[in-house]
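Reply to dn_fold:

You asked what the input looked like. This is it:
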Amino acid sequence: MKRRTRVFLSIFLFGFLVPFCVFADSNNISSLLFTTDSQSVVTNTLSQALTVQTENAAGTAEKVSETNDVTFTSTSVTGKFLNSSGGAVSTTMSTNTASRTFYYEDSTAGTYTITVTIKGRTSGKTFSATQTITVTGNNSSSSDNSNASADDSTASSTSDNSSSDSDNDSTYSYSSQATIYGGQEDEPFNVTIGRNRLATVGEPVTFQAKMIPADSSYSGASFHFSFGDGTEWNGMLAKHTYEYPGEYVVILDATRYSDEAVAQVKVKVVSADLSLQNVANDSVTIKNNGSDEINIGGWTLSDNLGGFTVPEDTIVEGILTSQYQRA
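and this is what came back:
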């Protein structure tokens, strides 16, 4: 494993800068709606991406003009709302954004209602969106998150030692002859490493091997990752940092006694082409000059007055203006 590279953006301020920002009128927001369909998900397995969006009366996306606090609830007492890495989801919706993406996991089978509520920190205005989600213990569910992607096309699996990429029709071969998991109940030993990823050069990506079904025994199991850039790792949990942009195929080879299983995900790695448009005592405006969204969660923005720590899962698509508390 490579050492994690921490990315810092340094700013040196000369005099007081007043942020110049154009905000949408919060009165234009009339509703909060799910833009993703209802899902079925296997117990103890991360769902596909779920997204809510603020919209105006015309039914088009309308960006919020203030930071909003986000509340997630489920009619299941065992339901969990998580981020793309399986950690705690961020509970804020930043200024000048119109959507919030999250993931759901539950250990109890059933059909539940999930509710997302946003509340403006200044105006106090609230909007809510609800949707049903079905949790099943049957590992043949078509919503298996090993085939799910928030940003890319779904990767298809085959029962041979190769897999066809639906994006570019290229074929990938593996050293193992084991069957790639395709959701068949009669397959004795299956693994997954989740959905396809969008990553940034210099920032680590987390991969975790999981059994299919989730209650399978890990006794006697071993896991080997190949990250697609010539590096490898042994173990269930891996963090890897890519040094160059490109598209990589990550392969997980797993064995349990005499059984073998293979899983794969694709990782699109992009360079961060960001610029700071303005900085004030309690806000910062960042412009993404590239064509791909960039996740700057965990980054530190610093100047001679202190620094901002960006909340997890903060996505920059175009121009993002957010209020942060200086460290």
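The chain has no helices and 28 strands.
Hope that clears it up.
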